[in-house]
Write a structure and sequence with these properties.
With 385 residues, this protein is an alpha/beta fold. It has one domain: Rossmann fold (3-Layer(aba) Sandwich). 44% of the residues lie in helices and 13% in strands. The strands form three sheets. Strands 4-3-5-7-10 form a five-stranded parallel beta sheet, with helices on both faces. Strands 2-1-6 form a three-stranded mixed beta sheet, with no helix packed on it. The longest helix has 35 residues. The chain is elongated.
Length: 385
């Protein structure tokens, strides 16, 4: 008997076609992943770090100020680079440059001044006469205290690793002394900065953490060429009125703790981080509109609140409050081996150099740049040089 032959097709060709489809699908999935992986590795190797929107201004923002306070010209361009700092774009060959980042509050930020008239920018131009490969980034943030400098060191400076930092602090710390609430809770500006850092650190998805996607977003920002035009001045000119009655005696000794103690500790923490990172740190005393002499003792300053009591004080007393912070900084430099430059007495306390208590005019910024440049030129590698 003949065996019955089946006419059913062999399953082998179907298996081969399924295997081929699986191979094509695998290639279609793996090749893009590999390409993205190679591109991500290239971006991490060849692009500067991206720190996100952690500073007060976003990267590549541009604001045109059409009105200005006393001693400041308008219009003024206020723009930022890839790191949200004021100043030129950081150089790609970062390690070959003498890179400096200026840290501080509104006196450093110079918000109302044009990009090319802030003291960090003018300082950069002066230092480039001796070393054309000098770059200074302005990381000043209005209202912050020395605590923000500690946060910035740990979250940003640690990643960027400049050759040096300039730290100008004191006015924001002193401002905490004017309110029981601020003395207890600290600065709202510091908390806002810490919140921006926390939001950046909370980003965990590949797209949020990818250097490739960050570079793409920065490229889009940079090429958008968007500008915001402001018709009003963000800061107003200020000069204190005459006191209508004698000022209230303030218990300055009772203010020795709190913000002053925190300032002392923060300066030590900034210096410790700088030493750990092998970054040169130069601390600069805070200049101010008010002086401590008799001409300012008849001028009215802000109301100082202490233990639920309001004290009407003179501009001279406010300056003496600030001088405690400058004196503490100088004592740390003298006794603790910190590098300091005493800028405060080198900027005259007058309306030519300041348009508000701690905000420099163009003349004030130019003088600050000249004085700091003189110190750095005469001490290229530190106090002993």
């Amino acid at each position: 008997m003949e065996a019955t032959r089946s006419d059913a097709p062999s399953p082998r060709p179907r298996r081969r076609s399924l295997s081929a489809l699986a191979a094509v699908a695998a290639v279609a999935v793996c090749v893009p992943i590999l390409l993205i992986g190679f591109a991500e590795a290239y971006a991490r190797q060849h692009f500067l770090p991206a720190i996100g929107s952690v500073l007060e201004s976003d990267p590549y923002s541009r604001l045109i100020l059409k009105k200005a306070p006393r001693g400041v010209s308008a219009p003024a361009a206020v723009s930022t680079n890839r790191w949200g700092m004021r100043g030129d774009e950081p150089p790609r060959d970062w390690k070959d440059w003498a890179s400096i980042i200026a840290i501080g509050g509104g006196t450093t930020q110079c918000f109302q001044l044009d990009d090319h008239k802030t003291w960090p920018y003018l300082l950069q131009e002066k230092l480039r006469r001796a070393n054309p490969k000098t770059w200074i980034g302005n990381a000043g943030q209005e209202g912050v205290t020395s605590l923000a400098g500690v946060v910035l060191m740990d979250a940003v400076i640690r990643r960027l690793h400049p050759a040096a930092i300039l730290v100008l602090a004191g006015a924001g710390d002193m401002a905490l002394d004017f309110s029981d609430d601020r003395r207890e809770r600290g600065s709202a500006y510091d908390r806002a900065f810490e919140n921006r850092i926390d939001r950046q650190m909370a980003k965990t998805s590949f797209k949020e953490r990818s250097r490739l996607f960050r570079e793409y977003n920065l490229w889009k920002r940079r090429n958008a060429h968007d500008s915001v035009v402001a018709d009003q001045a963000f800061h107003s000119s200020r000069f204190p009125d005459l006191l209508e009655s004698p000022e209230d005696p303030v218990p300055l000794d009772s203010l020795a703790g709190g913000p002053l103690a925190a300032f002392h500790a923060n300066i030590l923490r900034i210096q410790a981080l700088a030493r750990q990172l092998r970054i040169r740190a130069i601390f600069i005393t805070q200049p101010y509109l008010y002086g401590a002499d008799s001409a300012w003792s008849i001028r009215e300053a802000r109301i100082l609140q202490f233990h639920d009591r309001d004290y009407r004080i003179s501009a001279a007393t406010e300056r003496r409050l600030l001088d405690r912070f400058n004196a503490d900084l100088l004592s740390q430099c003298r006794d603790g081996g910190l590098e300091c430059f005493d800028l405060a007495p080198r900027i005259p306390s007058d309306s030519l150099h300041f348009y508000d208590e701690g905000f420099l005019t163009e003349a004030g910024a130019a003088l600050a740049a000249e004085q700091i440049a003189g110190y750095l030129d005469s001490h290229p590698k530190g106090p002993g040089t």
